[in-house]
Automatic annotation (TrEMBL):
Protein name, as recorded: Exodeoxyribonuclease III
Amino-acid positions noted as binding Mg(2+) in the UniProt annotation, renumbered to this chain: 8, 35, 149, 151, 251-252
Positions of the record's site feature: Important for catalytic activity: 222
Chain segments annotated as coiled-coil in the UniProt record: none
Cofactor note: Probably binds two magnesium or manganese ions per subunit.
Family annotation (Pfam families): Exo_endo_phos (PF03372)
Record keyword Manganese present: yes
Organism: Paracoccus suum
DNA sequence: ATGGTCGCACAGCGA
């Protein structure tokens, strides 16, 4: 059995103490971070090490992007992909002792305008998802988990107001379709929604709201997926809303799931 | 309809 968490930390160096607090309070076996905004050699690995998290598999760059998998069970580096050939640190994979592979993904946000003819970043987001789809189609994953900030809230109840969000990047039909194609190509099951099938579910609230909790204009951008062969072993999904209220928070909160598998 | 807040790194870009 192991507990897995994913969290867009928005600078792992600035928020190393928040990571420690989560590790101490919730003790996930594996924590996947996105937007570390740090070269790998500047990630404060020692402080995680001191809490028993002896393994880190990461990709990084200066200032932007960056993904890391922090683990207290042994993991080995299982490589990375440069979807859409952006040259960004947006994917890394790790293998658990039993052979389960964990993909940690940070999908491009996509800018403000949901039109690739006027907004290059939106096109890059769609291309990233198309490349992911093609990779999973060519090499269909088994006994795998995919987590991360996918920057898309696919369902009506994954946003505070579906109608109002239809032309807002992260909830446009085009993006939802691209994400669905990548999900279908890999045979991925949305573990969070398997466990919590109905009702509003958010993992992100903008920094720009006067009062994020009162307005509650959230979106579910952060996801845990598993291939069908192991999705039945998952349970106890949780989204830690309270973490948004911690001092100096990330705009995202951690998403958790447990897997009844030998790690 | 607009502007609102962060982080990086030191001006403005990305989110």
């Amino acid at each position: 059995m192991f507990t897995l968490a994913t969290w867009n930390i928005n600078s792992v160096r600035l928020r190393a103490q928040l990571v420690c607090r989560l590790l101490a309070d919730e003790a996930p076996d594996i924590l996947c971070l996105q937007e570390c905004k740090s070269p790998v050699d500047k990630i404060p690995a020692e402080v995680f090490h001191a809490l028993g998290y002896h393994w880190i598999v990461a990709r990084g760059q200066k200032g932007y992007n960056g993904v890391a998998i922090i683990s207290r069970i042994p993991i080995e580096d299982a490589g990375d992909r440069d979807y859409a050939r952006l040259g960004h640190a947006r994917h890394v994979a790790a293998r658990l002792p039993g052979g389960v592979v964990i993909h940690n993904v940070y999908v491009p946000a996509g800018g403000d305008e949901p039109d690739r003819t006027v907004n290059v970043k939106f096109g890059q987001k769609l291309d990233f998802l198309t490349d992911m789809r093609d990779a999973f189609h060519a090499d269909r994953p088994g006994r795998s988990i995919l987590v991360g900030d996918l920057n898309i809230a696919p369902r009506e109840d994954d946003v505070w107001n579906h109608r109002q969000m239809l032309k807002i990047v992260s909830h446009t039909p085009t993006e939802v379709e691209h994400l669905g194609a990548a999900q279908d190509a890999g045979g991925w099951v949305d573990v969070t929604r398997k466990d919590i099938p109905t009702g509003p579910l958010f993992s992100w609230w903008s920094y720009r709201a006067r009062d994020w909790a009162a307005a509650n204009r959230g979106r579910r951008l952060d996801h845990i997926w598993a291939t069908q062969d192991i999705s039945g072993a998952s349970h106890s999904s949780r989204i830690l809303r309270d973490v948004r209220g911690w001092e100096g928070p990330s705009d995202h909160v951690p998403v958790f799931a447990r897997f009844d598998l030998a790690p």
